Amino acid sequence: MSVFKDGFLWGGATAANQCEGAWNADGKGISVADICTGGKFGQSKTITPVLQEGTFYPSHEAIHHYERFKEDIKLFAEMGFKTYRFSIAWTRIFPNGDESEPNEAGLRHYDEVIDECLKYGIEPLITISHYEVPFGLTKKCNSWVSREMIDYFMNYCEAIFQRYKGKVKYWLTFNEINSSVAPMGALLNQGILNDLEHPTEFMNQPDIPQQRYQGLHHMFLASAKAVKRAHEIDPDYKVGSMMIYSCSYPLTCNPDDVLANQEYNRIQNYFCSDVQCKGAYPAYMNRFFRENNIVIEKQPGDDEILKEGTVDFLTFSYYMSSCQSADPNAESGEGNILGGVPNPYLETSDWGWQIDPKGLRYGLNDLYDRYGLPLMVVENGLGAKDTIEEDGSINDDYRIDYLRRHIEQMKEAVKDGVDLIGYTPWGCIDLVSASTGEYAKRYGFIYVRRYDDGTGDFARLKKKSFYWYQKVIETNGEEL
Length: 480
Hints:
480 residues; 8-stranded parallel barrel; two-stranded antiparallel sheet
């Protein structure tokens, strides 16, 4: 018998702005992702508030999934997917974000995507907002800084919850909501852009912590209201949260390092999910807010909204771990995008991300112990440079090894007692990187023949990992 339960949701994950392309087709408006330029390995992307001629914007073409979704979903079905995690592009439904009526062409497109999934018995798992707030709302009110955003978001949720009732069961409100505790997340997730006049380096946009955390408060309220409204529209709807799980260890057993690690975990790994899963702000944030001169502006009834809108399940991305040190001279971990100190016991990927399969087991136990909710790993994978051999094969054994070792640790977590319900590796088909805008950083089981110099015909090719994952799903994780 398999360690994983019957009906375990094997699948894969993408995001609209990284795979769809067709950035202005069929009435779609401009999202924040659409003004992010492409970068190169080791370089940051740039935000250009005014679109510039001759500049490469990765989301504009991506991998043409908008036109080729039927071909791609057929390949997912051939692998045996039980679920496909994808996002709806908010600006396909409300191009500027503040319209009173949705764009029918956008709604119809996702009707077709959902129907194509259901044709093959694939359960849609839909992220409502995945790093692409309407740029119109950034210009109008600096996005989630404004409480107005809650109503705009709920108008969007109302449209899609009503439209896809009876077809969709699983929803996620915000992708990696806890990314917003860092300045980069204020742009990616919240659409906060404090300089609307000049191009800004992606990692170093002007940052105002008060705005970030006030924006998070508004996102918490929007998520809670969405959970409640979804249950009213369809009692069968299950609405989850989605976070980055950044597994972290103290660098040494020095109590100062242990305390530094505890503080990191509270802010990075627990704060947002504590609010969304438990329905209240945790007490440890009071000191953090006080010492950072942050005052969360609440209205009467906000605490009740949070309490009434807790999520049904918890999902997270997991790619790497890091260490924390109280020593200001400790080596920083530039490759680990959430910072920290490199772990001397771990290997690293081509992009400098430390590989730690056992950190996934640790994280699954950590989160299940804390919340007792069903868990799903909705992003995990290895970004690497793949090569097409002369015979047309793509032998990505390094990716197979990475995924195998992580699935082995998922098994151990299930044996530990964790209620794990699904696994959707990131970028099941190659797409453009969120952090750099590159095609070269590939995650998929399916190779997309497109390159950073603008060449390539977007053809889909099966990698060795395609057939490996097919067998994993067929045996419910027993044959790795």
